[in-house]
Amino acid sequence: MDLDLFVAANRRDWDRLDSLTKRRRRLTGAEVDELMELYQRVSTHLSVVRSGGLDPALAARLSGLVARARAAIVGGHVSAWREVGRFFTETFPAAVYRLRWWWLTAGAAFILFATGVGAWVARNPDVQAALATPDEIQNLVEHEFANYYVEYDSAAFAAQVWTNNALVAAQCLVLGVFLMLPVLYVLALNAANVGVLGGFMFANDRGDIFLGLLLPHGMLELTAVFVAAGVGLKVGWSLIEPGARTRGRALAEEGRSGIAVALGLVAVLFVSGLIEGFVTGYVHITWLRISIGAAALGLFLVYVFTLGRTAAQRGVSGDIMERPANAPVVG
């Protein structure tokens, strides 16, 4: 075969395919069809050149052209940064927004139960005596509670808090598969602990210290726990009531959304850990501490109820297996 004649006969197709590939995001329907046809034709040219051992340089050129055309047709590799950006602007907030009624309900139940336990402990000296000795209670309310936030290095303390809270959130997410009951137990146990501690503090006129040190980091931290619990409950409920889906499919879809939430909550709990490690025990103006915590919670809620709602309205469910439908079609 005459290589010069082969190149002359097919150069126009190669140049046209190269042009269409470079304009892949702005192609008309007819041009998409042309791109597909030329891709198949040039793939055949590449096979001919390789099988005949005609020209290694030409084979390399056509191989690169075919690879770029294939990427234009099936969708090129999306950069890791774009994937991360899409996760935090669509996947994670959409998953949290879609399940908002689950975690809002879990949060309301937590607060009501913790408040009830706290009031019960604060108003009943016999209950206090059954839970701790007078010396232990005095040491807790006068020293241990406040010192807890300053006795460790801030960075190490923030890392420890982050790890502990991530573990609690992970428990809520993973245990949801066991028909919701373990999630309810973890939620109730943590609410009871908060209630008992608050009851001791309020019974000894330290309620202002309790709220002043708990709220700055606790508003965002507990919201993250509520989200994890809500998602875990939804995973469990999908086995009880899968709707139109099979139980296996419902569990898989809700489980994948749960993974997205778990990954996103790592960042949320990191922020709450920073607040607990660097703000709670070291900013001595109570209103300023609480304002910082309220601002962090407010930003998270605005993030979920704006980006999350927008993404959900576009059909994003939070399932990490979702992919945008951006393949070129004739239209």
Give an overview of the whole structure.
Helix 9 runs antiparallel to helix 10 (207-240), helix 10 packs antiparallel against helix 11 (247-280) and helix 10 (207-240) runs parallel beside helix 12 (286-313). The chain has twelve helices and no strands. It has helices at 3-22, 29-52, 56-74, 80-98, 100-123, 125-131, 134-147, 154-175, 181-203, 207-240, 247-280, 286-313. It is mostly helical. Residues 323-331 have low confidence and may be disordered.
Features:
single chain; 331 residues; mainly alpha; disordered C terminus
Helix coverage percent? over 70%
- The number of helical segments is 12
The rounded Rg comes to 29 Å
- Residue-averaged pLDDT: 87
Low-confidence stretches: 323-331
Approximate strand percentage: under 5%
Report the order of strands and helices: HHHHHHHHHHHH
Q: Which structural class matches the secondary elements? A: mainly alpha
The shape is elongated
Separation of the first and last Cα atoms: 41 Å
Instruction: Tell me how many strands there are.
Output: 0
Please describe the biggest sheet, giving its number of strands, its sense, and whether it closes into a barrel.
none
